[in-house]
Amino acid sequence: MDGIGLQLPLNRSVSTGVFSLITSYQEEAKQNFKNLLLTSPGERMMNPDFGVGLRTFLFEPRASAAPAIRQRITGQVRKYMPFLQINKIRFDSGKNLSEPDYLDSPVLSIHIDYSIPGLNLDTTLILQNEETN
Questions:
Q1: Shortest CA distance to 71 belongs to which of 87, 58, 97, 52?
Q2: Fewest 10 Å CB contacts: which of 21, 69, 70, 110?
Q3: 101 three-class SS
Q4: Domain limits at 123?
Q5: What CA–CA distance (Å, rounded) separates 69 from 107?
């Protein structure tokens, strides 16, 4: 099977030609979803509303940022990836989530459980603090 799309970040590949390619629809959907999450609104020419813009929430207080991130993710998925179903969004600071200082933690990782019924895919996308910077 030839590739479906380019694998990001771009890498040279001797087996598929100039660039590494994605060869499964599951990986293509995951890459597109991650792209939606990390793209900031206004970053895409001709589509200024596209993107969740997780980086814009980095220095926001966790108590107000978490609901805003949830809302932005669900709205963007509904508009740009309607075939994808969000099952659960969890925020993890690397600490026990019952600890009171969880909301003050500077470390953010987001676990998004999602499914794509058309592909029989049920998986989790995890974005660590380093990926959102």
A1: 52
A2: 70
A3: helix
A4: 5-132
A5: 15
